[in-house]
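Lab channel / #folding
Pinned by the channel admin:
"Please post every new chain as: sequence first, then the structure tokens as a reply. Keep commentary short and put observations after the output so the thread stays searchable."

First post following the new format, from NK:
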Amino acid sequence: MMDNLFHRVSVRQFKDQPVEEEKIKEMLHAGMQAPSAGNQRPWVFYVVTNKDTIQALSKVSKHSACAAGAPLIIALACRKEKLSFPEKIQQDMALCAGNVWLEADNLGLGGVYLGVYPEEERMTNTRAAIDLPEEYDPFCLLAIGYPARPMRPQQNRFDETRIHYIK
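Reply from TO:
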């Protein structure tokens, strides 16, 4: 059940193959299943398959160029209004993105997470690329597709020196 936790790696090169609508819905469903503070569910999803918009999103920051070849970008944004716990949106959004990410791997897809929030320039560039309304703040971009090459094994990140037991 937890295999994708130990399998998922960042993928920056993609096959020229669209992601099926059913797989997109499964990833979005996984994202919406994330827990959130007070069940506020601040997330809003922009599913981008338009090549021109993908190109614009690939220029959001110096680190986002790898998104240019992705057949799909899921831009996560968060509502700014009607939130019970606005101070918790970063945690809520990170949990949502993580769920999308793990489901993408589960579906045989790969991708790369591109942070946007809270950097103003990235937020401005993302807002312009997808014509994001002011009531939402852009949070991150998930460039997703079928990996162009076999995925390398994930490194073992377990570090027992970072664990402290309090009994």
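NK: Residues 56 and 129 are 6 Å apart (CA to CA).
TO: also worth noting, The chain has a mean pLDDT of 92.
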